[in-house]
């Protein structure tokens, strides 16, 4: 019997935070995963996993029909790879190891992407290699409504150290799987940037398998796209693994930005920390964060914490935030979660204005401060600069 605990520190603004953050009636670990498209009917929006997502606008992404995979000359989207000489670049057909080791599709979009990608891109960081420069993978959409599927496998061999930056740009209707295997003692950071044009749609599943005493960091930065939904999931292949999931997002009028995470503590003496922060402005701007942590009976001595903060800058915006913590053993170091959603702090604004700072500049300072702690954890100068520049652009469009 599992013990569902609630250690959330929650401060909500009823006008911006939706109700109904109920504990799911099925354990997160019991949900279906499969490589068979038939196992996942087209969602209708009433399912637990899809209840926040505007599925009526995504019918084309659920259709199981052949499309060219990324990197095969597709008219819908193309991929480029820039990598240090040490990195091995190849492809994997379905069933070719290690494809399918870390990622088994967990929803309709992911299973279609898997089934319709004949050759997955395979990036291998050799054992004990320490890359001086990041691996850069860029997915470029070539037109609104053009359909693309993709699957990429990143394999960091034992005791290697590397960073992979995945950038999404242009426009397309894209479903993309990202499969990450972190070998024993390896240290891998994956940064995924969603910088799509305003008419792009993107559904993605990012799964990682973290080895013994390995370190994994996943950083999701979502600023562009009409509808973007990223599932970031972690499980462990041995004891002593450490996983950090960070997210930054900024939604404008009409945008739907959704982030879901699932940390499956299936091994002892592992740690996980999840921190997502988002801001919203404009009519019908909508963000969703759902964070699931499962601590299995065998996961003794683990420590985990997840939190989500949302800042609502204007009327008409909505943030849904749902943390879930499921515990099957009491032999742990610590576990908790926190969620808060609120409006702009008028007291902070007044404090800054009282010291001669114009209102527009004061607003920017408060929002920059809101994002500062999570952005600083990214520790990739070029990514930090790009994120803060994008936030400045978003703030310049804010309604006074």
TrEMBL record:
Q: Which residues form the SUF system FeS cluster assembly SufBD core domain?
A: 144-370
What's a GO biological-process term for it? iron-sulfur cluster assembly
Q: Where is this region: Disordered?
A: 1-25
Q: Which InterPro entries match?
A: Fe-S_cluster_assembly_SufBD (IPR055346), SUF_FeS_clus_asmbl_SufBD_core (IPR000825), SUF_FeS_clus_asmbl_SufBD_sf (IPR037284), SUF_FeS_clus_asmbl_SufD (IPR011542)
Q: Identify the domain of life.
A: Bacteria
Q: Where is the signal peptide?
A: none
Q: Which SUPFAM superfamilies match?
A: Stabilizer of iron transporter SufD
Concerning NCBIfam families, the annotation shows:
sufD
What protein family does this chain belong to? Belongs to the iron-sulfur cluster assembly SufBD family.
Q: What is this protein called?
A: Fe-S cluster assembly protein SufD
């Amino acid at each position: 019997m599992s013990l569902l605990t609630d250690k959330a520190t929650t401060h909500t603004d009823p006008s911006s935070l939706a109700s109904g953050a109920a504990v799911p009636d099925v354990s997160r670990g019991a949900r279906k995963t499969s490589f068979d498209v038939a196992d996942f009917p087209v969602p209708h929006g009433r399912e637990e996993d899809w209840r926040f997502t505007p599925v009526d606008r995504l019918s084309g992404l659920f259709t199981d029909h052949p499309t060219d995979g990324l990197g095969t000359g597709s008219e819908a989207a193309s991929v480029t790879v820039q990598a240090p000489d040490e990195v091995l670049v190849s492809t994997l057909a379905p069933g070719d190891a290690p494809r399918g080791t870390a990622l088994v599709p967990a929803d309709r979009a992911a299973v279609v992407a898997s089934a319709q990608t004949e050759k997955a891109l395979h990036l291998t960081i050799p054992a004990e290699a320490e890359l001086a420069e990041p691996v850069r993978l860029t997915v470029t959409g070539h037109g609104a409504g053009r359909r693309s599927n993709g699957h990429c496998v990143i394999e960091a061999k034992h005791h290697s150290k590397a960073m992979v930056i995945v950038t999404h740009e242009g426009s397309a209707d894209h479903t993309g799987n990202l499969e990450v295997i972190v070998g024993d003692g390896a240290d891998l950071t994956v940064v995924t940037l969603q910088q799509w044009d305003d008419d792009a749609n993107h559904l993605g599943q990012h799964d990682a398998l973290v080895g013994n005493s390995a370190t994994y960091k996943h950083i999701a930065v979502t600023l562009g796209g009409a509808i973007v939904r990223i599932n970031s999931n972690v499980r462990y292949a041995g004891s002593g693994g450490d996983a950090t999931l960070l997210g930054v997002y900024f939604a404008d009028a009409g945008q739907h930005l959704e982030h879901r995470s699932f940390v499956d503590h299936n091994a002892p003496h592992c740690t996980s920390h999840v921190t997502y922060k988002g801001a919203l402005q404009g009519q019908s701007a909508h963000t969703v964060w759902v964070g699931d942590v499962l601590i299995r009976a065998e996961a003794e001595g683990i420590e985990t914490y997840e939190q989500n903060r949302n800042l609502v800058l204007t009327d008409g915006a909505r943030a849904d935030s749902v943390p879930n913590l499921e515990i099957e053993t009491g032999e742990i170091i610590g576990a908790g979660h926190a969620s808060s959603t609120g409006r702009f702090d008028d007291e902070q604004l007044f404090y800054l204005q009282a010291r001669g700072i114009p209102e527009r500049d004061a607003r920017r300072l408060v929002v920059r401060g809101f994002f500062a702690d999570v952005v600083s954890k990214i520790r990739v100068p070029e990514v930090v600069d790009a994120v803060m520049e994008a936030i400045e652009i978003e703030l310049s469009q804010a309604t006074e």
